[in-house]
Design a protein that fits this description.
About 30% of the residues lie in helices and about 20% in strands. The protein is an alpha/beta fold.
C-alpha cells in the first residue's frame, strides 16, 4: 500500500481499524510490522493468526513495538544510505498520533522527508515487498504539508454513538488528504470484534472508560423520534388499507357484475339496431339521375322518383356530378342507387 492515513476522534475506531485491517493482514502475509500503537502485543497477534485464521506460525511476520522517542530519531526510517535503521526495507510502519512527530508546527528532518518521497524504493530481499507507511491522527489537517501532500488515501472513522450503535463504526474513504465530497470514494460499516481488543490497548492501556455526559447525543433518547416512527407506521397502515378498499371495494365488484351482465344477444341486438339506423338514412323515394343545364346556363342536379316525377336541386347539395355523386334531399341521402324500385309499392 502507499502512504495511508486513518483519522478520527478518540474512540472512533481508527486504532481498531488499523490493527484489524492493516497490521493483522500484513502479519498473515509474512510482513514485518513496526508500530508505536500503545499496548500492541506481537505474541498475541501471532496466536490470533494461528488459532483464528489457521495460519502457519513459521510463515507469519513479526510485530516490533517502537517508542515515540525512536520515531523522532533521524535513523528511524531507511533514507537511502547504507546504514542500519530502526525500520528495515519491506517493513510496514504504522504510527499512532503522527501529529506529534510531523505536525504543522514541526520541522520534518531531511531523512524522514526522503523516506516519505521514496519509501517504495526500500524493498525487502526476503519478501520483495517495499516499505509502506500508515499514519493515525485525529485530524489530517494537523499533519505537516511535506507529509500530507504524498498521502494517497485517507480513511475517516466515525463511531455511531448518535444512532445508539456503540458496537459499530463507519469508515469513509477519500482519495489523497482532501476530505471533500469530490474526493470521496466509498463508505462502509464495521462491527467491533471483541477478540481484537486484547491484541492492543486503547484509552491509555485499556484502562479508560468512555462515559456519555449528555444523553441527547443518542437520538433514541429523544421521545419525538418514537412519535415520528409511530406516525409513519400509522400513516402507512392507513394508506395501505384505503388502497386495498379502493381496488377491492363494493363499487369495483358492482362494476364487474354489470359488465358480466351484458350478454351476446344484447350485443347483437345493439349491433342490429345500429345497422338499421344507418340504412334509414338513405332516401327510399329519390334517386340521383344527372344534371340539367337551365336557360340561364346554370347546371342543376336532377333527382327522380319511381313514378317518373323529376325534381331540380342545387348542384351544391351533391358531392359531384358523376356516378359517385351523393347528396341530401329531404333529410335523406340520395345517390344513383337510392329510391324505390320500379313498380315497388310503398
Amino acid at each position: 500500500m502507499p502512504i495511508n492515513v486513518y483519522c478520527g476522534l478518540m474512540g472512533s475506531g481508527k486504532s481498531y481499524e488499523s490493527v484489524s485491517n492493516v497490521i493483522i493482514p500484513a502479519v498473515l502475509a509474512g510482513r514485518d510490522v513496526v508500530t508505536n500503537v500503545d499496548g500492541i502485543d506481537g505474541d498475541a497477534i501471532a496466536a490470533y493468526c494461528v488459532e483464528k485464521k489457521g495460519a502457519s506460525f513459521e510463515q507469519l511476520g513479526q510485530v516490533r513495538h517502537c517508542q515515540n522517542a525512536d520515531v523522532s530519531k533521524d535513523d528511524f526510517f531507511p533514507y537511502g544510505e547504507d546504514v542500519d535503521t530502526f525500520c528495515r526495507p519491506g517493513d510496514l510502519v504504522v504510527i499512532d498520533e503522527a501529529w506529534k512527530f510531523w505536525g504543522t508546527k514541526s520541522k520534518v528532518c531531511h531523512n524522514h522527508a526522503v523516506f516519505f518521497r521514496e519509501h517504495r524504493h526500500y524493498v525487502s530481499e526476503k519478501t520483495s515487498v517495499a516499505c509502506d507507511l500508515v499514519l493515525m491522527v485525529q485530524d489530517i489537517g494537523d499533519l505537516n504539508r511535506i507529509l500530507k501532500v504524498v498521502v494517497e488515501a485517507t480513511f475517516k472513522t466515525t463511531k455511531l454513538k448518535s444512532l445508539g450503535l456503540s458496537s459499530k463504526y463507519r469508515v469513509d474513504m477519500y482519495e489523497s488528504y482532501r476530505l471533500t465530497k469530490s474526493f470521496h470514494v466509498t463508505s462502509f460499516y464495521r462491527h467491533y470484534d471483541k477478540e481484537i481488543f486484547p491484541l492492543y490497548s486503547s484509552y491509555q492501556g485499556g484502562k479508560g472508560k468512555e462515559v456519555q455526559v449528555d444523553k441527547r447525543q443518542n437520538i433514541w433518547n429523544n421521545k419525538m423520534v418514537y412519535v415520528f416512527i409511530v406516525g409513519i407506521l400509522v400513516f402507512g397502515s392507513y394508506s395501505g388499507y384505503n388502497m386495498y378498499k379502493f381496488f377491492t371495494g363494493p363499487s369495483v365488484k358492482k362494476d364487474k357484475a354489470q359488465a358480466q351482465a351484458v350478454t351476446p344477444d344484447a350485443t347483437a341486438n345493439a349491433s342490429g339496431k345500429a345497422h338499421s339506423s344507418d340504412s334509414q338514412t338513405f332516401s327510399d323515394t329519390w334517386r340521383y339521375v344527372g344534371t340539367y343545364l337551365d336557360k340561364n346556363g346554370a347546371n342543376m342536379a336532377v333527382v327522380a322518383d319511381s313514378q317518373g316525377r323529376v325534381r331540380m336541386e342545387s348542384p351544391s347539395v351533391f358531392s359531384s356530378n358523376d356516378a359517385t355523386a351523393i347528396g341530401t334531399v329531404d333529410g335523406r341521402k340520395v345517390t344513383m342507387w337510392t329510391g324505390a324500385l320500379t313498380g315497388e309499392k310503398k
